[in-house]
Amino acid sequence: MLHAPSLAIGAIIASIAITVVMFGLNGVTDEMQLSIEPTPKIQDIGPSKITMDTFVSNGSPILGDPDAPITLVEFGDYQCHYCNVFFETTENDIIKNYVETGKVKIIFKDYNIIGEDSVKASQGAHCANDQGMFWEYHDILYSHWTGENNGWASSENLTIFAQQIGLNMDTWSECMVDGSHSQIILKSNDDARALELTGTPAFFVINSEGQVSKLFGAQPFEAFKKTFDSQLKK
Known about the structure:
By secondary structure, this protein is of the alpha+beta class. The protein has one domain: Glutaredoxin. 40% of the residues lie in helices and 11% in strands. The chain has eight helices and five strands, in the order E-H-E-H-E-H-H-H-H-H-E-E-H. A five-stranded mixed β-sheet has the order 1-5-4-2-3. Strand 2, helix 2 and strand 3 form a beta-alpha-beta unit. About 17% of the residues have low confidence.
């Protein structure tokens, strides 16, 4: 299934500058209706306007062996229900069976479509990355997910998460207030729209020859396994 809320912050932030006030945003006024698509099939990607940078730039540091033959790119929103379902039910199996064995590396990219807290959470993860702890912050965000736009990703809670994983709080807080990573978040959202994504999570599997396949929604581990194994045989 795809998550496609009516308030599409991801369709807005490309046209506005991110103004950080206590780790927040101001001036978000437009709305856009996103469609809910049926369960998609894996298919090849090849629009001429898409380059490899569209998939792999403006994202997280690599999780796994940089030389792994398969790259899994996830576009996600930290407030997204189905992104959390993927994290809780599937991601660990992918890491255990494919990332830790050197077959797959993972890149996470932001597609902020739910609300202001989604963007603040993305800022928190990128600020944690300045201290080499992106994936620790990514994990603690999803581990504390309790819903959409209900305050669990408030500025106060984001600060608590940063403390819990042992970040230097002066450095992290200054990064948040300055909005130091606003541009990478904006560009990642631009990449998602260039790929015509209408919801999260959305996944792209890239093999060593640069061939790209996509999966939409919180697919079970077996769907990823089938895709990985077919690409590894090529």
